[in-house]
């Protein structure tokens, strides 16, 4: 893996795992939908996450939970662009969680540093947009199907879920590199919960170290997800402990970014993990 990740205005190192704080500007996200739906509320929430230790802010204007309904390009822009403009000088990289090329371009023009795309640049025009902005980071994710129906009937991967995910991400990376994208701009996400059963998610997490062969930074997003509820039997807003355990399992297997709702608690858990692994600076 490259020693630095090119992320718009920033160059990120991974001497320690980084925390990506989730900023949902949606009425229907699975965990915190409508909590920060206004521009001012979203900006205040995001600034609070930075104070708690977020290293990156991931801004999203369209829910991609299972069964979610799509929103129009204009509606998504109306939600995210004022928030991006309000956070542009907050001191940490800004990520836009979108798969729409039009939203990607407008967000990059407004100051976003990272494109976080659940479709891995498969939408027509997406690859061309990120090629126009040679410094932005790009996170590509594995997903089977589309958000509205992906969990209706996930495919039977047998025991090959990790191999399938690795092959998909390898192919997408190859296409990006052939298009002239600097490998230092590419991050990968296994896509926990996106067209996968709970058993498949946990197998993928267990075997996630195999993805290190792709030589790209790995982002893990497991916060409050159904896979956590499947083993803890807790409702979505009572999954903090399970989410932290899963995030640490991912970090232990090579993840360098964890995407979370609960930044302060995850920050403390990672501080202890780092002290165990690397010692304490006194």
TrEMBL record:
Pathway given in the UniProt record:
Cofactor biosynthesis; tetrahydrofolate biosynthesis; 7,8-dihydrofolate from 2-amino-4-hydroxy-6-hydroxymethyl-7,8-dihydropteridine diphosphate and 4-aminobenzoate: step 1/2
EC number annotated for this UniProt entry = 2.5.1.15
Query: SUPFAM superfamilies under this entry?
Result: Dihydropteroate synthetase-like
Gene Ontology molecular function: dihydropteroate synthase activity; metal ion binding
Q: Record's family?
A: Belongs to the DHPS family.
Question: PANTHER family recorded for this chain?
Answer: FOLATE SYNTHESIS PROTEINS, FOLIC ACID SYNTHESIS PROTEIN FOL1
What is this protein's record name? Dihydropteroate synthase
The organism is: Advenella faeciporci
């Amino acid at each position: 893996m490259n020693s630095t990740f090119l992320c718009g205005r920033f160059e990120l190192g991974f001497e320690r795992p980084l925390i990506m704080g989730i900023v949902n500007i949606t009425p229907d996200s699975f965990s915190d939908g409508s909590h920060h739906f206004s521009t001012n509320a979203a900006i205040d929430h995001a600034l609070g996450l930075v104070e708690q230790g977020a290293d990156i802010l991931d801004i999203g204007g369209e829910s991609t939970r299972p069964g979610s309904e799509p929103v129009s390009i204009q509606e998504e822009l109306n939600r995210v662009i004022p928030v991006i403009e309000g956070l542009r000088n907050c001191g940490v990289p800004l990520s836009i969680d979108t798969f729409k090329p039009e939203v990607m371009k407008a967000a990059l023009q407004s100051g976003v540093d990272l494109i976080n795309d659940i479709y891995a640049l498969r939408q027509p025009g997406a690859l061309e947009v990120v090629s126009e902005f040679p410094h932005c980071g790009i996170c590509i994710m594995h997903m089977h199907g589309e958000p509205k129906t992906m969990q209706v009937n996930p495919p039977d991967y047998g025991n090959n879920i990790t191999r399938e995910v690795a092959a998909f991400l390898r192919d997408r990376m190859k296409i990006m590199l052939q298009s002239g994208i600097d490998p230092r701009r590419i991050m990968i996400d296994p896509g926990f919960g996106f067209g996968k059963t709970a058993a498949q998610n946990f197998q993928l997490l267990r075997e996630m170290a195999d993805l290190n062969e792709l030589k790209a930074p790995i982002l893990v997003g497991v916060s409050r997800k159904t896979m956590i509820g499947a083993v803890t039997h807790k409702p979505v807003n009572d999954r903090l402990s399970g989410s932290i355990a899963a995030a640490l399992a991912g970090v232990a297997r090579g993840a360098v970014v964890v995407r979370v709702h609960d930044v302060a608690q995850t920050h403390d858990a990672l501080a202890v993990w780092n002290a165990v692994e690397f010692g304490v600076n006194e």
